[in-house]
Amino acid sequence: MPYLKAFIVAAPTMALLAHFLTEERMPWWPDTVMFGGFMGALAAFGVMRLTHARRAVGHLHSVGRAATGKRP
User: Fold this and answer.
1) Beta-carbon neighbour count of residue 17 at 10 Å?
2) What pTM was estimated for this model as a whole?
């Protein structure tokens, strides 16, 4: 679910920023909608990569503790 939350927050936020903060306003359809969708997907991908990296580092940490003989 964190992927969906990231998408739901990032997509409309970035779309609105892109529409209102540019010199010439972007048309709502299809430019702003496509930009928001892309940024939402990029945010979801970032959350996915961070989640997997955190899991990998946790496994490596537990392997290191087991190799040194330290108990939690």
Assistant:
1) 14
2) 0.74
